[in-house]
Specification:
The protein is built from two helices and 13 strands. By secondary structure, it is mainly beta. The chain has a single domain (2-21, 33-203), classed as Jelly Rolls. Strands 1, 2, 4, 5, 7, 10 and 13 form a seven-stranded mixed beta sheet that branches.
């Protein structure tokens, strides 16, 4: 019940902020060099069953008319739809399940590695913590190109349920992370599509 209310509150926050080739990918290029070394796979979408627990939530919960869906196409999770600002809307999102394995995978990690084929739009990746704090980082996708986007944990910003930055927030406690998701906001209206191949977690490298 608590998580349900937190989802609703976060949807409201994103509404406020919005107001302010289907072929299998080959030869991914790493776009950001924020982390190196071996990564642990959090999600890989090679089977249709792997996307079953991923779901979308749009500004329709607040009266908006944006549309989105999460589907499985050629071993990728495809998050696509149309973003609209009508009726004070302006966000779409796609979240994985509350995941019991994430705290151990995230513990001591340094970065998230997202392999995807984008559309040139800037997406917001979110980590949700069981202490009520959320963490966000934006990345700009490259249109029609398979890329690995490295999101260093040190570059995530802690926010409250209104998406307002928490001043002087303590460092992220990685072992408290229980859910991951992606949003499109920032008044980027019109059709969108990002096809995600995998989400990996980079552990801290031995010194």
């Amino acid at each position: 019940m608590l998580r349900r209310y937190r989802r609703l509150f976060f949807a409201l926050a994103l509404t406020l902020v919005a107001g302010c080739s289907t072929s299998e990918p080959r030869g991914a290029t790493e776009l950001t060099s924020g982390a190196t070394g071996q990564s642990n796979i959090a999600y890989d979408f090679t089977t249709q069953a792997s996307v079953a627990k991923w779901s979308v939530q749009n500004d329709t919960v607040m009266g908006g008319v944006s549309e989105s869906s999460s589907t499985w196409v050629d071993k990728q999770l495809v998050f696509s739809g149309n973003l609209s600002l009508e009726n004070n809307g302006g966000f779409v999102s796609c979240f994985g399940p509350v995941d019991e394995k994430l705290p151990s995978l995230m513990n001591g990690s340094t970065a998230i590695r997202l392999r995807a084929t984008g559309d040139g739009k800037t997406y917001l990746f979110q980590l949700r913590s069981d202490d009520g704090t959320n963490y966000v980082q934006r990345f700009t996708s490259t249109a029609q190109k398979d890329q690995v986007y490295v999101l260093p944990l040190s570059d995530f910003t802690s926010v409250d349920w209104r998406l307002a930055e928490i001043a002087d927030a303590p460092a992220m406690e990685t072992s408290n992370i229980y859910q991951m998701g992606i949003y499109l906001v920032d008044k980027q209206t019109g059709p969108f599509r990002i096809a995600i191949t995998s989400i990996d977690i980079t552990p801290e490298q031995p010194s």
